[in-house]
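Escalation from tier 1.

The customer reports that the assembly of three entities below gives different structure tokens on two consecutive runs. Tier 1 could not reproduce it. I'm attaching the input and our single run for tier 2 to review.
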Amino acid sequence: MARLLALIRKEFLALLRDKASRMVLIGPPLIQLLVFSYAATFDLNNIPFVVINEDPGLAGREMVARFEGSPSFRQVAALPSTAGMADLIDHRAALLAIHVGRDFSRDLMIGRPAPLQIVIDGRNSNTAAIALSYASEIVLGFDADWAAAHGGRAAPATLEVRAWYNPNLLSRWFVVPGIVGLLTFVVTMLVSGLSVVREREAGTFDQLLVTPYRPWEILLGKAAPGLLIGAAEASVIVVVAVTWFGVPLIGSVVALALGLALFLVSAIGIGLMISSLAATQQQGLLGAFLFLVPAIILSGFATPIENMPRLVQYVTYLNPMRYLMVILRGTFLEGDGFVALLGQYWPLALLGAASMTAATALARRRMG
Amino acid sequence: MPPRHAGRSPVAEPGHPPALRFAAVGKRFGSGARQVAALSDLTLSIPAGRITGLLGPDAAGKTTLLRLAAGLLRPDAGRLDVLGLDAARDAARIQARIGYMPQRFGLYEDLSVQENLDLYAQLQGLTPAERPARYAELLRLTALGPFGHRRAGALSGGMKQKLGLACTLLRVPELLLLDEPTVGVDPISRRELWAIIANLRTRGVTVLVSTSYLDEAERCDQVVLMDAGRLLVQGQPHQLAADLQGRCFAVRHVTLDRRVLQQRLLTAPGVTDVRLEGTGVRALLAAAAVPPPLEGSTWQPATPEFADVFVDRLQARQARRVALQVAQAAATDKTDKDVVLHVARLNRFFDQFHAVNDVSFDVVRGEVFGLLGANGAGKTTTFRMLCGLLPASSGELRVVGQDLRTAPAEARRQIGYVAQKFALYGNLSVAQNLAFFAAAYGLRKARLRARLDWALAEFELGPYLDRNAGDIPLGYKQRLALACALLHEPPILFLDEPTSGVDPLARSEFWQRINQYAAAGTTVLITTHFMDEAEYCDRLVLMSQGSVLASGTPADIRARAASPDVPNPTMEDAFISLIAAHEANLRRAA
Amino acid sequence: MNLGRLRGLIWKESVQILRDPSALAIAFVLPLFLLLLFGYGVSLNAEHVPIGVVAEHPNPQTETFVGTLRHSRYFDVHELPSLAAAGAAMAQHEIRGFVWMRSDFARQTLGPGPGTIGVALNGVDANTARLVQGYLTQSWQIWLAQQQQEQGAAPALPVAAQTRIWFNPALRSRDYLVPGLIAVIMTLIGALLTALVVAREWERGTMEALMASPVTMAEILVGKLLPYFVLGMGGMALSVGLAVTLFAVPLRGSLLVLAGASALFLLVALGMGLLISSLARNQFVAGQISIVVTFLPAFILSGFIFDIRSMPTVIQGITHILPARYFVSILQTVFLAGDVWAVILPDAGALAMMAVFFLGVTLLRSRKRLD
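Tier 1 run:
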């Protein structure tokens, strides 16, 4: 036992005594947490739009006023005709053009469908879709009020939308818990993915192998820093997410901790596998990178797994990040506890056991 | 320190200004507290048209001096003239006229021999018309002709160095700077390299070559001996050696083992250095000292060599005389033939490459057994198989009756291991390294304290205890690695190239320690590419390209190479003649 | 600059590229891998979203609305017996949301109205939730129009919004993600290629030998830049080819503009790589720095996936120092909109300035000395 502790202590010292590697473990994750949490948002505000109001009546002005009044929109220009509109959209000065036709008020008064043209820049399709849904909310609000005020026939049924778990549909509530997983993942992979190969390159791995340590003891020693550093970093980020970004954590903290622990084990196992296979640190780094990028992309961190082709969806079952994302968002926002997450725990446990076993076997093989 | 032999430094002949002139040159690296002076107040002239050897222990400033001369570094103080130009301002013009071969010469490993030559010919501005003649001459000199299409990466270490030299010599430079061109190279390539260098004399090229092989000093017209960034002495090697006339002796003793004799003499007053040589020892006395009285010893005057000059000039730096507890009883009694290591018909392939070819040997308890050969001879592969780090392709391996690859982990307590380049945890402190290895071997409580105290005292690591192992001088790294391997008092010690890159003084001190442990009953298996270190082994095998060329005691092996022309061959001579015989055999077989 | 020496250096570099598979792998295999991964893996288009329907009293009125939902390609409708069942399905992530029509739905819609269609969405993924909400609103409007036609009544919605989406009428997310992706990939590749190869020269000791020869620093840099520029353009061509053929992204601008902008951007990326390698003379550190300073910021901050206009002002400011930002903007415009000079010229100008900056700083920093 004392021998094992000495090994773990050595791994920590080797990792943390170097100022540069300490900085790499602490600085970038925090900076990334802040920058990404602010930058990675799909919410739109201040959508620049241009108005072409050819309607002399009040209704047209009323409609334009509703857009101007909305916090989501910002008027950048008003044009007398559609002449300059294309230019503004082409060079991205405006995302959206609202064109109120000459007969808008008149049509409304006589009960004919009053046309309102909305032209939108579709280059960023997601932005366009979201902006469009904002615009249609405004138009529907106008409709309802107009019907009420002018005694027109109201719609026979209306939609009453409520969003569970995230009532104001804040992207940040979605992104920040994901970033907890993302950063923990990156740090753990960097710590474990290079640990064996760094020693092999320095020649100390041979030195370690001729001591009476058994292969599993060596691997355990290698896994320990990743586990502890990953856990510590995840805790810090969770606290920042809750206190700084105000993301609610309504589920069971224990269930979250268990999920993170299982995830760390499987991520470390994969990291050690890569590390055992690599002959040089550069290969180890490249290997870690080539695993990290797809694992992040295919985790549901930024885009839902359901949107991916069927075959790709099957591949994601091998990705520990996939399960962690569900656990994080489940505990943070949906109030999940232990039982609700069982379906995520067991695949993680399985992945962890398999990758650790494989890493030990690989390390033993590479010892030759 | 003796006065500088200012009068003897060769004065530039009239009409021949010195090729290099250092005037109070200083160069520092790093910043703040970590700043170290690589060169301080160096004043020196290198005569044109001669071969000058640059020697000195580790960190003497040899590489810095060469880089300054090549215009790759700028002096912090003083002035440096190269070929009459100020190196600080005219680096570009200097570089057009010199050739420089760094320690690890930059061959493009993906390019073939011919392509490397083509590239450097283009870079040095050789016209296409000039090229064929230059190529032909250089390929003839380097004997690389048949390998023109081989990738540079697939050449042996010696061939790479020859190709590197050929690339620097494409346009014959006025001044050639060579940084340790022969390190780790097999003896045959080493001779060929020196033949090429000597050939440059006829073309009037000035050569400045640094080396850590003391015997190479004798091939130079003059030598510059440096230590810690300062000039110790400059002069002609044979004249410097002649100064020691009457202080060198070959010593024999009727009964004492040569190792015990060496230890006795080292502690005797007035003795500067004692080295093993042949069946006896070679002693260097301090100036004006007389041979110490020792019953049964015979003292015969010997011709001083440059190695003696080196030790004599640097003795002030020599840390201490290893105080040896002479364990006489164990030392002489090697008759019980208790086989500790057994290797039979060992083979190892890496894909198609036959790295170890049918190697067999036995090592008995308390023996110092050497695996000698150039880089790439298969020493390290054999070694790693013995330690259980690499599976053998075929053959038999036994360490104390067990195969370490399959034996339980506890069996590894039997061995201590020093890996190549002293693999230590570079960013752990010296104390942390010691503590870790002590714990790894399960040392506890009183024994732990006792062994750590022993390591500190024995290897004088105290001053470096809190420094990172990666930042301490190479000599101390070597000591720390040895200390870590010996903490658990293993009966068998494996040492892989423990003297590589270490300066001659540290090497000799290291061997004294090894002999001491062997005398106390530890079995030592050691690899080295320094042929002269064969003398320190009880028995050895000479390896080349995976095969054993010869095995036996050093005297046996030398005797096998003796011929009427060379009645007293050195180990290097022996290696060369054995290789010739081996190749003849191969040809006959083919 | 001596042309003979320069030719030698370029020839050497080219032979090395051809013999050492790692450079070719970085230039061609890596973009292929990333493009396929992102192209297939990243999609913001939600289709066949599983949603539940709870009709407390199924009748023709509710059935018409459910029918509209069934008709939509956006939804995959699951009928559920009760609100409780819907809640459970939601918690299990079996459905993304559900529509709930009370028992009085038919009476209200036919009578005094309005009836209420309750919609509950899983808001965790706010973006998808918002898209689903938009799709539901569309279906509802279609249903209203049908109702109105059947009953011959006045329009329930007085304003007829006519939406025209320019450049990407189907709002295929791939059409905007793939061009941006090319920018992200080229940032990584450009920097990685040069950073690694220069660091390799330091590691193998070939740089020291080059420096002591009569070669000038400018020759060494140009000798590196040119072959990798050609290689990078090859990788770029491969990426564009894949985008147009495999992912069927329209290319509305001219190839010439695309090539010009790519060339400019590659100079920036290669310049960044050279600068990184002049700071870190070891392949490992150089590789790490290039990944950290190029890939992640290009991914998050270039506008490739997250709209820069939505970011806080400070972060929008930061994006201006990222070369990828300008290239993403050019690529999205050239692919989807055409040669819009009002976008291309300022962006290209910014790239040109950056190219001069990075190459200039590298040249100033790189002296033929080791200290």
